[in-house]
Amino acid sequence: MATIKDVAQAAQVSAAAVSRVLNRDENLSVSPEVRARIFQAAHRLGYVSPRQRRAAESRRHLTIGVADWRIVRPDRPNVRLSSLSCLVQMMTDRYEVQFVRLTCGQTLPVDGIIAFGRFSAEEVDFLRAQSPSIVFVNSDQRNYEFDQVQVDFQRGLEQMTAYLLDTKRYTGIGYIGGVYQSGNSQIGVMRAEGLRRELEARGKYDPRLFHIGEISRESGYTLARRAVENGALAEAMLLGSDEVAEGAMEAFRELGLRIPKDVAVIIYQDIQTLESRWPTGTRIEMYPDYVWENALELLFGRISQRRSQPVTVTVPAHIRIGDSA
Prior knowledge:
Layout: H1 4-11, H2 15-22, H3 32-45, H4 50-56, E1 60-67, H5 84-91, E2 95-101, E3 112-116, H6 121-130, E4 134-137, E5 147-152, H7 153-167, E6 173-178, E7 180-182, E8 185-187, H8 189-201, E9 210-213, H9 217-229, E10 236-239, H10 242-254, E11 264-269, E12 282-285, H11 289-303, E13 312-316, E14 318-320
Parallel strand pairs: 1-2, 1-3, 3-4, 4-5, 5-13, 6-9, 6-10, 10-11, 11-12
Antiparallel strand pairs: 7-8, 12-14
Helix pairs in contact: 1-2, 1-3, 3-5, 5-11, 7-8, 9-10
C-alpha cells in the first residue's frame, strides 16, 4: 500500500508538501506544475489521504460522456480520458467521476456530456436525449441553449508562427498532416487551413511545403520521407497529429535528420490518441487541462442545478515550447 513518502518520492517533493497539497492547504504557495505532479503521483500509486477518505463518504458519483467523434477517428482511442479522474480530484472533492466515450446512436446512461466539435442537428438531438446537461467545446451552436467552451485555435497558430519566424528566425514553415472523411464528418482540415491563412498573411505560404494524406502513422512516414527526398521540407514542420508525428519522426530518423538542428518539429496535439513519445517536444496544445477544467466546471454547475443561464467561455490554444523547435 502506497504511503505519503512514496508519493513524495515519485513527485520529487517533500512529504510535508504532499500532505498540504492533498489536504488543500490554501496557505501553501506551490506552482500549478508541482501541484499537478503531486496529484498525478498519488493517483498513479493509489494513495488516498485521510481527508480524501472522509470526503469520499459524501462524494457524488457521476458518469460523464465524452462525444469526440467529430475530432477523433472512431477507430482510434482517446487516451486523455484515463487521466481525467485525476484532474477532477485536483478540482474538487464533491464528485467522483467516471468518463465514458460516446458513440453516435449508441445510448449510454450518463449524467452529463462534454461534446467536441461541430455537430449536425440530428447529432445534437441524440446528445440531448442522453442528458440535458451538455457542454459543447469548439462547436458552432448559436441558439445559446447550451454552455460552450470556445478554443481560439488560430491564436495558437499565431503564437507558433511568431515563435518560429520572429524568435527562432526559421526561414519557412511547412506541414505534414492528414484528413479523415466519414459520411458528413471531416477531421483534420481546419489545422492545415489555419496554418495556411497565417502564413499567407505573412507572405510565407508555399504550397510545395504542405503534405496532406491520411491521419495515420503510415501516412506520416510516407509523406515525411517523400518531402525529404523531393526537397520539399521546410526548416520547421508542423505535424498535424500524434499519429502522423510518429510516422514522420521515424522517417526523419531513418534519413539521418537531426531534430531540431536539421528540421524543427512542432506537434499539433488535439485530444491525445497516443501516449506521447516526445513529452519534451514543442507542441500546440488544443485541449490542455484548462479547457477540460472550464468544461467540467460548467458541467458540474448544470448537473447540480446551481445555474440555469448558459455560459460561453473562450480560451486560447497554447504553444508549449520544448526541445524539438
